[in-house]
Specification:
six-stranded mixed sheet, about 350 residues, alpha/beta, 434 Repressor (Amino-terminal Domain)
Amino acid sequence: MSTKVKIKDIATKTGLSITTVSRVLNGKADQYRIGKKSRQKIEIAAKELNYIPNYFAANLKSGKSNTLGLILPTLANPFFALIASIANTEARKQGYTLIIADSNDDIELEKMEVQQFISRNIEGLIIVPCGAEVEHIKHLNDQHLPLIMLDRYFEGWNIPFVATDNFNGAIDATKHLLESGHSSIVCIQGIKESTPNKLRVEGFNTAMEEAGIKNARIVGNDFSVQNGYLETKLILQWTERPTAIFTLSNTIAMGCLKALKEENLRVPEDISIITFDDHPYLDFLATPITSIAQPVEHICKIALRYLFSRLNNKEEETTTNNVLLKPELKPRESVKRIVKT
């Protein structure tokens, strides 16, 4: 078994002092005016010996971990997987490691992951809350841990967040259906208590009421493929089948499409679909699906910029704690235009 290479091994190989080697490897060569030849000698030796820095020991000494935490409700949803990918890239650009955790939409698991992250000495936290409980997040915010919520957030609490304008996004989706001649529309929702779902349902209801349609039909209770599948199966048993379905996530839409295919129903000839959330695969389906696209990249970049401003004590850049970004309607081929006679 090979032994771990230490700084003194590099010092022995180069003939330089342990202090000089340590300063070069810790990025302090300029600060201590260490010559170019000595630096190159140390860097070459470190590479040849396959030296791996002991970040844990360095963290103990500096009090910094250069680590951020990200807690998501699920990595099975392409929307959250994309958030993880973008956030990881942005963190890496700043020399930080991002630890990603999946709460499986379980509030107790989310609380446990928060505690585990704190024990790892994370410097900042990005979280997509999975439930209605806020106290464990508020406690961290009150303790001045740099943190920010993405997508889901708590209204009325002084906790920073970046999210999509879900209310107006849902209005845009519903109006697109209404303007295409649809009035018999059913909405398949996600987790009822989540803020994005509440606002999307509110937007749907508002647009329907403005069109003179009361008691709009809303079903479902989860942002999952299974929810979309089961609710669509039930909808298709109704005496009067709707002409359009508005799904509140692309995972719900996938379940909906599966159910329609099993019943040999065509989109949009037999029934129209529009969904909240966008994904590249929506363009490559047999019938590309019209969607409300969230600006995921901008959401992530703003959140990371906020965290790094806090970490760098640039308070003047973090005065705006709550940011809502406008989504984009992406018309494709899944909404049929109904001409009323």
